[in-house]
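Researcher: Re-running this chain for the archive, since the previous output was lost when a drive failed. Same request as before.
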Amino acid sequence: MAATDTFPDPPLPELLKRAGLLRRQGRFGSATQLLWARLESNASLIELCRKGSERIAGSEAILAQCDQKLEVARRCLDKPTRRWSFTFWEVLHEVDGLLLLVMPQAMLVPRALEIQQQFERRVTDARAALWLGTDRRNGPLPHCVRRLARLDTDGCCASTSPPLGGEELGYCRHVLRGALDTVNQQVDKTFWQLSINVSLQVFSTLMLLGVFIVSAFLLSQNFVEDWPHTLVRKGLLLIGLAGASGAIASNMLSKERFVVATGATSRYFAYHLMVKPVIGAFAALMLLFLERSRLLLSVETRDASSSADTGSAILHIVVNDNQAAFFTMVALAVVAGWSADRLLGSVMDKVLSKLLGQSEKVLPPPGPPVPPSEPLPEAQ
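Model: Regenerated structure tokens:
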């Protein structure tokens, strides 16, 4: 056998044998690497709990469930598509809650302090008084944390306090698990809201680019100078697209706080990406019709403003030429599409009052009262 001066390559550690770690060693895999580090940290914590000195009833079954859930989380990260975020965090949060039931008491103390700090920082609704108490000191969560850390009511260390018994320790474990579930629900809700908002902004950007392309094609047909004589077809379509673009831009700049965190999110996409642009286009066309009818709005050039009858228009805008008049209407259409849901109600009320007022003016005035006729004399 020939001698060699090189040593054999050492075997890879067990952590690096994970498919996800070997696959995502590239430049843009840093976020996924952090998720893998969090997952494997839980795996090492499971091993410590399995070999700990304390034996809790049902701990083997709980640790077996944790192993199964970690395997599900690993497969979520190994998926080629990135539709794993919600499932991954849901499974990881379940593992964190189960580990609180079997964790040794010495390891449970820093975890309890961390849960209380996260709860006080993240949960600010009515649930805070239920878990922390009205004074944020005498609720079940602060009481359990003080008993585990052997602190008195003032937060000072009380080393002479007796250790927790089995029943009281189990009670504290379940209180900590419930508080951690509340914190995770709040975090998941914020994560869902952020995910939906970002997805809506991305899809709105693509829709707005499509509107720009169609508008650029229509503007290249040289009908702006003849505005408003070429109002039909191309003009109506451009004003409608301007209103839709205003609604789409409002999706990109606003961050909705959705009422529910999970469930059928397709209805949000249908409303923001279909309903709102259609309402914005309708509001822009309604504004154009009001401008042409001179009921509330009038946009005229300087040459035509002297001889034009603005009627009962509340807002009268005078510009230099037809091109300026067209782009003024486009700008008003974008504003109408931006706030279409608030604009349409007030505009409809004003239009209705104007129409009723004008209908009262054209009614004929009442004539003079007719005197009653004299009764005929009776026949003799």
